[in-house]
Amino acid sequence: MLLIQHGTLHTMELDDPIRADMLIRDGKIAKIAHTIYPEKDVQIINAEGLHIFPGFIDAHSHIGIAEEQTTAQTDLSNEGTNPVTPFIRAIDGINPMDSAFHNALTAGITGVMVGPGSSNPIGGQFAFIKTHGRCVDDMVVLAPAAIKLAFGENPMSTYGLSGTMPSTRMGIASVIREELFRAQQYLQNCDAQKDYRLECYRELFEGKIPLKAHVHRADDIFTAIRIAKEFGLGLTLDHCTEGHLIAEEIAASGFPAIVGPSLASRTKEEVAYSDFKTPGILHKKGVPVALTTDHPVSRIQYLPLCAALAAKEGLGKQAALRAITIEAARICRVDHRLGSLREGKDADLAIFDGNPLEISSSVCMTIINGQVVWPPK
């Protein structure tokens, strides 16, 4: 058991922080109260003057797949041999020994949505995992957690330059539609003979997981929305770079946005309008917003910095913190376990010596499943 006393708790469910104690038992938040008296054999952490947050969440990442020391053997974020690979699984490509996981812990990041890159129109299955462990199976919170789609420059350049479909935006949409139609027909009519390459769509069409669309330009955002609505599927709009230009339309769609990596360079034509103002504009129109570093495009430990810059450019401090905690958890569909400080939820915490949106603040302690994982013993 672990008892954290005298801390300032930022629950992310209340607008204002509270001064309270927190008891952790069996990896869960067992009790939050003004005063909790120690039980026998409980480890006590004195958090006087410290700020306790739910562990931060990066809602779109390639950590452990595109590793820090990138080579042809370690950048395995794309299965570039086939434009349609929904059956590949992130959990088979994540290396928990990637040093970026250590960096995540030092920044208070305890949860990440991880999956394939954006070379393929349909790229594979994302997984939501925790950032501490040696075996990925022990780190999984939800897998599969989404099926990746990609629109725009990446698929066109990967396949179009080699003379393979798709080479245009129309071709990308056609490839995706054809595959989703085939999956829909299979799931409606399948018998005892299972098709491995199509079974992976079952949870998608049952509404348990969403499509996860790599979209930068406004026209690609609209295409992703159009296709998701045609098939009645859930969707997250990842990157959503030009989302501020069509904020009302995105709000009307009902789909959430995962914005970023706004800290990265504008290296492609379709990210020319990348700006930290995008999350705030979307939020003010009623769009649920999370943030992403798109690690390793931006390094994962800069997620709090991205939140701070988004807050400065119009998102506001509380909404920025929610975008890397409870809103991120809701968008990733893991909010029943993560994203806020509440009795019964996983004891995944980040303890700071100040406001995490201030560059001078430091992480004093990161806790996952009730165990102190940073700093190491």
Describe the protein's topology.
Blueprint: E1 2-9, E2 18-25, E3 28-33, E4 43-46, E5 51-54, E6 56-61, H1 100-106, E7 109-114, E8 122-130, H2 136-139, E9 140-150, H3 153-160, H4 169-189, H5 196-199, H6 202-205, E10 211-215, H7 218-231, E11 235-239, H8 247-253, E12 257-259, H9 278-284, E13 289-291, H10 303-315, H11 317-323, H12 326-331, E14 349-352, E15 363-368, E16 371-374
Parallel strand pairs: 1-4, 1-5, 6-7, 9-10, 10-11, 11-12, 12-13
Antiparallel strand pairs: 1-2, 2-3, 5-14, 7-8, 8-9, 14-15, 15-16
Helix pairs in contact: 4-7, 9-10, 10-11
Q: What is the overall number of helices?
A: 12
Residue share in β-strands:
15-25%
Tell me, briefly, the overall form: globular
Q: Tell me the span between the first and last alpha carbons.
A: 17 Å
How many strands, what sense, and barrel or not for the largest sheet? 8 strands, mixed
Strand runs, count: 16
- Overall mean confidence score, pLDDT: 95
**Category from helices, strands and their pairing:** alpha/beta
Low-confidence stretches: none
So what's the oligomer here? single chain
Q: What is the helix content?
A: 25-40%
| N to C succession of SSEs | EEEEEEHEEHEHHHHEHEHEHEHHHEEE
Radius of gyration: 21 Å
What descriptors fit this protein?
377 residues, alpha/beta, 24% strand
What would your notes on this structure say?
The protein has 377 residues and is α/β, with parallel strands linked by helices. Helix content is 27%, strand content 24%. The chain is built from twelve helices and 16 strands. It has helices at residues 100-106, 136-139, 153-160, 169-189, 196-199, 202-205, 218-231, 247-253, 278-284, 303-315, 317-323, 326-331, and strands spanning 2-9, 18-25, 28-33, 43-46, 51-54, 56-61, 109-114, 122-130, 140-150, 211-215, 235-239, 257-259, 289-291, 349-352, 363-368, 371-374. Strands 1, 2, 3, 4, 5, 14, 15 and 16 form an eight-stranded mixed β-sheet that branches. Helix 4 packs parallel to helix 7, helix 9 (278-284) packs across helix 10 (303-315) and helix 10 (303-315) crosses helix 11. The longest helix is centred in the middle third of the chain and has 21 residues, at 169-189. The radius of gyration is 21 Å and the shape is globular. The mean pLDDT is 95.
